[in-house]
Amino acid sequence: MKQQLSIVKIGGNVIENQVELEQFLLNFSKLEGLKILVHGGGKLATKLAGQLGIDSQMSNGRRITDAKSLEVITMVYGGLTNKNIVSKLQALGTNALGLSGADGNSIQAHKRPVKDIDFGFVGDIDGINADFLNSVLSTGITPVFCAISHDGKGQLLNTNADTIASEIAIGMSPIFDSTLYYCFEKKGVLKDVEDENSVIQHINTETYSDLLQQKVIADGMLPKMENCFHALNNHVSKVCIGDISMLQPNTKLFTTITL
Amino acid sequence: MKQQLSIVKIGGNVIENQVELEQFLLNFSKLEGLKILVHGGGKLATKLAGQLGIDSQMSNGRRITDAKSLEVITMVYGGLTNKNIVSKLQALGTNALGLSGADGNSIQAHKRPVKDIDFGFVGDIDGINADFLNSVLSTGITPVFCAISHDGKGQLLNTNADTIASEIAIGMSPIFDSTLYYCFEKKGVLKDVEDENSVIQHINTETYSDLLQQKVIADGMLPKMENCFHALNNHVSKVCIGDISMLQPNTKLFTTITL
């Protein structure tokens, strides 16, 4: 039987709330077994860019990562957020190791080709260095990823944190029984967006198809769910979506997704 | 016989010159055997602090690291500089791993006690995690340190890069035959500061004492030399001081320091 591995992604809204972040890190540090953390960046990068007079360029509602924006992202995600999370985890007794995809060549990617839109320095993932991550985990160390990959030619690339988490879960599943956790500000996938407690506790391929038809799953939840099923279709055992209490042993209110 | 390990520190003036940095990284990537890189920060942090309206407070010519300055340092040293060096080394075929002292609990320190001056979030090193660094090196990976340590209680600390390099060299010397390289903008320790080529090729305890009396070694070179002899007095085999060409196999003009 394969050893269990938890891959936990926390979103920007959790990171920016100091109380939520501290509670999340406490829960994460208590989570038993091997684990990997992936953090998003949140609005800190946008705020810093604003202070530096760097326009966050958008195209059809999607952010463009130009050279200056990439510098800001590298400073905020790779530096400030990542190192602070690592030092806080150390204080909680979790021996953490902060990583970008360049470190240990852990996430290989290529710059997204220009089609209709030039997204700039955005990376689409080619592969995960499972051997490296396995060797880190085997020494009792917990990898903590920021949402940056690299192209192997000296270029760092901004990469979606949800995608990094699912690709790590997929890349590690030949070796581990991987569970992917998406931790965000809501208790799970909601039946009614107006009702915070209307959590759908279990979704599978069949019920997902119904939820799509009923338009219960829409907008920002759509790419997240696509990431989930992409992971499940590639040997990840289970995906869970919920708020920071999801990692506590007695919490029952969150969404579990299986095939 | 112990295996050889090179600990190389590059200064801020090299980092800020893109051409020098690229040449240095090429030389470093070609350096044979196990190696560790430590980089300073340079003026980028001061520049960013200025752009953000953060005053770099000084006391008797020495920088005070307040909370805002520490954030800037964490962004610039731990994020921008460190991740860019790592990605460039990957492109040169060196499998690099960027680290602060919090990562893998690799550099333990305490906040400098307040005596005459409160230096703020500045760390004095207590120890190096030699087991962790040894396990990283044994998998063919090259650690790349920024000048940040941590106190194990969740606090990152700004720490002098020269000191980090010498403490790593000392901490690794029970396991390795360590050589410490200080790479900066000059060809070595100069007999005459006006003459760039007046390099003193060999210094030992005896000649050092003479050089001190003759006041050949003064100002900024004094703490650097103290770091060198501190390392040599603690089982580091050899210290070399020179410019980026020092790492090339045929370069003869640099300073070698032994006991």
UniProtKB/TrEMBL annotation, chains A, B:
Q: In which pathway does it act?
A: Amino-acid biosynthesis; L-arginine biosynthesis; N(2)-acetyl-L-ornithine from L-glutamate: step 2/4
> What Pfam families does the entry give?
AA_kinase
Q: What is the top-level taxon of the source organism?
A: Bacteria
Transmembrane segments in this chain: where? none
Q: What are the boundaries of the signal sequence?
A: none
Recorded catalytic reaction(s): these are: N-acetyl-L-glutamate + ATP = N-acetyl-L-glutamyl 5-phosphate + ADP
Which BP terms from GO are recorded? L-arginine biosynthetic process via ornithine
* A molecular function (GO) term: ATP binding
Q: Which InterPro entries match?
A: AceGlu_kinase-like_sf, AcgluKinase_fam, ArgB, Asp/Glu/Uridylate_kinase
Q: Where is this site: Transition state stabilizer?
A: K9, K224
Q: What is its EC number?
A: 2.7.2.8
By sequence similarity, the record places it as follows:
Belongs to the acetylglutamate kinase family. ArgB subfamily.
**Function according to Swiss-Prot or TrEMBL:** Catalyzes the ATP-dependent phosphorylation of N-acetyl-L-glutamate.
| HAMAP family xref list | ArgB
Q: What is this protein's name?
A: Acetylglutamate kinase
Task: Give the organism the record lists.
Answer: Maribacter luteus
